[in-house]
Structure formats: C-alpha cells, structure tokens
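look at this one:
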Amino acid sequence: MTFNVVVNNQQRTTAVFAALAAPTRRRIVQRLSQEGETRVTTLARPFRMSLPAISRHLRVLEKARLIRRQRRGREHWIRPYAAGLEDARQWIAQCAAGWEFAFNNLDRLLKATQQKEKTR
C-alpha cells in the first residue's frame, strides 16, 4: 500500500468520525438510513434549526462522503451513501481484532497462571 493511499484513508476516516461527532448529523444519518432518499425540507422538519443550519450539517456529511445530494428542479434530495462508511468500518474492525487478540492472550495467560497455582 502506498503512502498516499494510507494518508487518504486516514483523512476519510477522520472526516467520517468528525462528521458523526455532532448529534444532529448522527440523527440526520439515522433518519436517512431508515427513510432512504428524502427532500432537504422534509429532512429538516423535526430539527429546531434554520434551513441554512441544516444545509451546513449536510455539507459536512457530504464532504465526509456519508450522503449524496441530487438537485431536481428547485428541490434538493439527499440519500445515504453507505460506501462512505467503509474506511471507518475497516478501522473499527482492525481495532476490534487487535483488542480481541489482546484479550484472548490475556485470558490464556490468566488460565495458565490459575492452573499453575492449583498444582502447587
């Protein structure tokens, strides 16, 4: 893997986590994952903020590649983009595998120590 690919993956992963750090953006992503493609005005309805504020949140999510925006006439439609989560998912999977490996080693060590103490 080249250095540029690693850096780009890290930047995309950082962008995803930064985008999802805000509760409003997590709620937007959650709504989109449940409802699918939605108009911006419909998506903004349950939030107590202006349409420009929602648009700023959507731009962050779009920059992180978590949503896609399509313009149809005067309406903007937003859809979730699951592939945008892939770099973050891989990062989480690698961390989980490392933790699992470490915990398994610790478990084996504890069992071996307990066995030694029983035989004494």
